[in-house]
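Sequence in, structure out. Go.
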Amino acid sequence: MSDSAVQPPFRPFRISERATIGTISVVLGVVAWETVARAGLVSPILLSSPSAIAAAFGQLLATGELEKHLLVSGREFAVGLLLSIVIGLPISVLAGWNTRAGWFLQPLVSALYAVPTVALFPLVIIFLGIGFWDKVLLVFISGFLQIFIATTTGIRATDRRWVRLARSFNAGQTKLFWSVVLPGAVPYLLLGLRLAVGRCVVNVVVAEMLASEAGVGYMIAFYGNTFKVAEVFVALISVVVTGVVLNQLLLMVEQHFGRWRPTVR
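Output:
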């Protein structure tokens, strides 16, 4: 059976229908939100209106304040995530492929995973101080853990039928790894990367809320303490949009790689 026979047909109407329904849902939610806020059903100190948030967004954008804080958080997030990928992937592959390496690393990772990452932040500050690298380290730890767990699980979950088939053709360990094990673990790897992105976004914001002089987390803490709810919502929406966009991009990459994965029947 050819690959085209098992691929689902492309339905452009289904995609446009999904986008239309989602857009209607968002618009109705915003209208209801604006109505509740204008009717005074909730105190403005607790809930701002979409129009006020839009005005605050324009002001923060015009003064350059939003851009400045986004760049600070973006650099901390990007460096921490990049380090977690560069360092975490080789270690994860080694732990998943080599049994003894997995026995050695698994207890350490399990112990670190059991501790809330934010709880480590005071210790990180003691060692690195308050600045750039303390947030980077916290982001690195959270991203590394997600990548390690997903990647090692993917390598160990390799279908035994493919392994037996490769060995029947006298495939060596190196050939088996690059041709069977690693391609089969790619979806797990990408899933771990998606989870890492989400955790890294959360932790960089939380770290900035706890100890920082710039960044989106600092904006949330500062404007929250001064009861400027519209500005808080601007920062929150910026975080949400960033997380959603990154997740969708990685989901597209995951779906792209999923097309050429063979199916065992």
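Check: Confidence is low (pLDDT under 50) at residues 1-7. The radius of gyration is 23 Å.
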